[in-house]
Amino acid sequence: MTRPPDADEQVFHRHRNLLFSVAYRILGSAADAEDAVQDAWIRWSSADRAQVADPKAYLARIVSNLAVQRLRSARQQRETYVGPWLPEPVLTDGDAADAVTDAESVSMAMLVVLETLSPLERAVFVLREVFDFSHAEIAAAVERSEAAVRQTAHRAREHVRRQRPRFTADRSQQRGVTERFLAAATGGDLNTLLELLSPDVTLWTDGGGKVRQALRPIRGAETVAGWFAAIGTVTYQGVQPHDMRAVLVEINGAPALVFSGVGRVVATVCFDLDADGRITTIHTVANPDKLHAVADGTTHHLATR
C-alpha cells in the first residue's frame, strides 16, 4: 500500500510552481531553476519546522538565495559564451498570459533586459516588482538590510524602465502576426515578411557555438526577411527543407514558433511588436542545450500567485 506524502512534502508541492517561477525569472534557465528548486527541497527537508512561521515566505527566501548564488556562478560562464546569450525558452500554459504583468515579466524580451542587472538587482526586482514581496521579506531572502534593498529596488526598477519594451501587444494581435509570419517564412513570401517587420527590426540568434548561428545581431527588415525566407530552401542543422516542421505554441507567455525535424527541436522563435503591430525584435534560440525544456513538452505554470 502506497503511503500518502507527509505534510512537509505536501507543503512543498503546494508552492513548487511559485518556487520555479521565482527561480526561472532570476536565472533565465529552466534547467538551473529546476536545480534550485531541488536544492530548496533538500533545505526544506532538513529545516527545523519550529522556526518556520510562514512556509511560503521561507521557501521563497531559500530558492531566491540559491538562485542568486547560481546566477553569480553562471555569469562567469556567460562572459565567455559564443555569440549572444539568450534565456532558455519554456512552454507555458496560458495562465501567465491571463494577466499582462505575468506575461510581460516572463517574456523573452524582459528576461533579456534582466540579464543586464547584477544578480542582486535581478533578485530584488523579481521579488518586489513581479511577486510583490515586501522590502523586509526581500531583505531576509538576499541577506541585506532593508534600507539597502530599497535602494537596490529603486536602481533596478529605473534601469528596467529605461530598457524594457515600450509596447506590449495584446494576445490576439501577437497570435495573428505570428501566424502570418509562420506562413510567410515557410512559404518563402518575402513581401509579406517585409510587411510584418519594422524597418529597424533586430534578430538575435543563440547557437552557443554548438550550431551555426549569427554571432552578432542582424538588423534591418530586408536582411532579416531574407534570413527567414530561406527556411524553405536550405538545409538547416542537417534537416532538409521538406523535413522541417514549424508549429505555433506558447513560449514564455506569448505566441511563438517551434521548428523541428528528424525527431528533434532545432529552434524556437519569439517576437516583440510595436504599437503598429510590426515586429521589432526576434529572439531565436537554437543551442541544443537550451531546447530540452521545449523538446520534452513540459508546460510550465509561471503565474505570480
From TrEMBL:
Name of the protein described by the UniProt record: RNA polymerase sigma-70 factor
Gene3D superfamilies in the cross-refs: 1.10.1740.10, 3.10.450.50, Winged helix-like DNA-binding domain superfamily/Winged helix DNA-binding domain
Segment forming the signal sequence: none
Organism: Micromonospora parva
RNA polymerase sigma-70 region domain boundaries: 12-75
Pfam families: Sigma70_r2 (PF04542), Sigma70_r4_2 (PF08281)
Bilayer-crossing regions: none
Residues covered by the RNA polymerase sigma factor 70 region 4 type domain: 109-159
Self-association and partners: Interacts transiently with the RNA polymerase catalytic core formed by RpoA, RpoB, RpoC and RpoZ (2 alpha, 1 beta, 1 beta' and 1 omega subunit) to form the RNA polymerase holoenzyme that can initiate transcription.
Keyword Transcription: yes
Keywords: Sigma factor, Transcription, Transcription regulation
Family listed: Belongs to the sigma-70 factor family. ECF subfamily.
InterPro entries associated with the record: ECF_Sigma-70_Domain (IPR052704), NTF2-like_dom_sf (IPR032710), RNA_pol_sigma-70_dom (IPR014284), RNA_pol_sigma-70_ECF (IPR014303), RNA_pol_sigma70_r2 (IPR007627), RNA_pol_sigma70_r4_t2 (IPR013249), RNA_pol_sigma_r2 (IPR013325), RNA_pol_sigma_r3/r4-like (IPR013324)
Domain of life where this protein originates: Bacteria
